[in-house]
Specification:
- There is one protein chain.
- It is built from 13 helices and 14 strands.
- The chain is an alpha/beta fold and 335 residues long.
- It folds into 2 domains: 122 residues, ATPase, nucleotide binding domain (Nucleotidyltransferase, domain 5, 2-Layer Sandwich); 202 residues, Hexokinase, domain 1, CATH 3.40.367.20.
- α4 packs across α6, α7 crosses α8 and α9 runs parallel beside α11.
- The radius of gyration is 20 Å and the shape is globular.
């Protein structure tokens, strides 16, 4: 039995799995998750995962960061990952590094209808390029070029493009973030700064300042006891705090606006897919219409966007399936 080692490496969590691949079907035999920030190097995680003695010839990993010549410096982690060095240390015959959203794009064929929630059906039998956007620790974006027969995923760093405000509130947000992060970015504010887990915290802090409000004691206690972004979104979903609700409404609207930007730039007639860890947790907020309103609000190109299917990826293993399918494909070519 041929085994493949696949991994989804993120700024918050890293998942590794041993799998079998049959066509577009990926069977996970063993899977472990790790808190990324607790480890100094990726190789430490591999040492632990492979300590059971499994022999693996082919490995592939999706990584949050730009990959060049088989090497990546992770965006939100102090890790430098080198495919050749991993082959030498762990005895892999082949090791592939993919951008994490590129990996998710490669994983789409392994998903079924139940793994998606449709926000917009688009036109029947929509075909053409597609795109994936995913807010999590950061903001990832990828495209899928349609060659007439199949999709060919490609990576981008679109999440780091410059944030563009649309109204007076968002211009105030831009000014607030420019001042808050001046030492790090010298005035540049990316889309990742507003549409991500860390961006959600900045949106809440901005609205506290903008509305001259203060965090209620019960919410402050909740924030100390759990993930702050999760506490904000939970309060918004429960309708128990007006500022949390406004924060999430702004977050969802900004998410939709940047998704529309990506869809236009990639010309994703074949569909726009929303991945990442945040979207499945806030589905009721995505379904209110604020996301699609912002997605479609592109002037004369609104009809083009209305024709595109828009779907939320519900299966968080897409980012694990993608590298496995990629590795299996390349292993077959090398036989």
């Amino acid at each position: 039995m041929r085994l493949f080692l696949t991994g989804d490496i993120g700024g918050t969590k890293t998942r590794l799995a041993l799998v079998k691949v049959n066509g577009n079907h990926v069977e996970i035999l063993r899977e472990l998750g790790y808190a990324s920030q607790r480890h100094d190097a990726f190789a430490t995680l591999l040492d632990d995962f492979l300590s059971s003695g499994d022999i693996v010839d082919d490995a592939a990993f999706g990584i949050a960061g730009p990959v060049q010549d088989g090497v990546v410096q992770t965006t939100n982690l102090p890790w430098r990952i080198d495919a050749a060095a991993l082959c030498q240390r762990f005895g892999f015959l082949r090791c592939h590094l993919l951008n994490d959203l590129e990996a998710t794009a490669y994983g789409l064929p392994a998903l079924g209808d139940a793994d998606f929630l449709t926000l917009q059906a688009g036109t029947p039998d929509a075909r053409g390029n597609a795109a994936v956007i995913a807010a999590g620790t950061g903001l990832g974006e990828a495209g899928l070029y349609w060659d007439g027969l199949s999709h060919r995923p490609f990576a981008t760093e679109g999440g780091h493009a410059t944030f563009s405000p649309r109204n007076a509130l968002e211009f105030s947000l831009l000014n607030y973030l420019q001042q808050r992060h001046h030492q790090q970015s010298r005035g540049h504010v990316s889309w990742e700064r507003v549409v991500s887990g860390m961006g959600l915290l900045d949106l809440y802090a901005f609205l506290l300042d903008y509305r001259q409000a203060s965090t209620p004691a019960w919410l402050a206690d909740a924030m100390r006891g759990t993930d702050t972004a999760a506490a904000i979104s939970a309060a918004a979903l429960a309708g128990s705090d007006a500022l949390c609700e406004e924060t999430m409404q702004l977050f969802v609207s900004l998410y939709g606006a940047e998704a529309g930007n990506l869809a236009l730039k990639v010309m994703s007639r074949g569909g726009l897919y929303i991945g990442g860890g945040i979207a499945p947790k806030i589905l009721p907020l995505l379904q209110t219409g604020a996301f699609l309103d912002a997605f479609l609000d592109k002037g004369r190109r609104r009809p083009l966007l209305e024709a595109m299917p828009v779907k939320v990826i519900l299966n968080d293993r897409a980012a694990l399936y993608g590298p496995a399918l990629f590795a299996a494909h390349h292993a077959g070519r090398s036989v």
